[in-house]
Amino acid sequence: MNRILARRVGALLVAGVLTGCATDGPEVRTQRAPGADFATYRTFAVTGQAQQSERERQILESWISEALQEAGLEPADDPDLLVRYLAFARDEISVDEVPREELVRLRSGYVTWNEYETQVRTVTEGTLLFDVIDTATDRLVWEGRVDQAIDRGARLANRRRIRAAVEALFADFPRR
Predict the structure, then answer these.
(1) Distance linking the first and last C-alpha atoms of the chain
(2) CB-based burial, 42-54: b 16+ in 10 Å, e otherwise
């Protein structure tokens, strides 16, 4: 019986640690300029810089265009809105205190012993920055930022994460 209890507690602890290490969704922040009337905007153009290859940049720009078209805007050479983006990744140090729980047997029974273990690791954080500019007034009317942990070696998984990040960001974009 005691071994079964210890195994169950151990399994719960492993599940808790794995859940804590799971990649969270993207962190999204947006801001709309006060008084900006998005009902008057009909067209857009996208320009930007990315650390990725030309192919990756084209894919990113197509996702941005799709999101803007879903918001009711159309691409144009002489746009109402200019969408400028910057995409980059950087390594950061992450320090976490992870609880470690042990079941200790005493003469009177079992007691739980709690300790914390410090884990230091390098995490690659991907960031997308967006400025949406009214071309008639040269005024910033909307800006957004999305941050998400990425894996430099997992290109396909990162594409999914980046697409989800673009969708999450533009979910807050004003609709026509």
Answers:
(1) 64
(2) eebbbebebebee
**CB-based burial, 6-23: b 16+ in 10 Å, e otherwise:** eeeeeeeeeeeeeeeeee
Taking 3-state DSSP, the helix, strand and coil percentages for the chain, each rounded to the nearest 5, stand at 30, 45, 25
- The total number of residues shown for the chain amounts to 176
- Note the pLDDT tens digit of each residue in 133-152: 999 999 999 999 999 887 76
Are the C-beta atoms of 83 and 68 separated by less than 8 Å?
Answer: yes
Pairing of strands 43-50, 27-32: unpaired
Residue type (1 letter), 81? L
pLDDT (tens digit per residue) in 40-76: 999 999 999 877 788 888 989 999 999 999 999 999 9
What ranges in 24-154 are assigned the alpha helix state H?
54-70
pTM above 0.85, yes or no: no
What is the enclosing helix (H) or strand (E) of 165? Answer: helix 155-170
Is the separation of the CB atoms in 36 and 147 below 8 Å? no
User: Is-contact 145 88, C-beta < 8 A?
Assistant: no
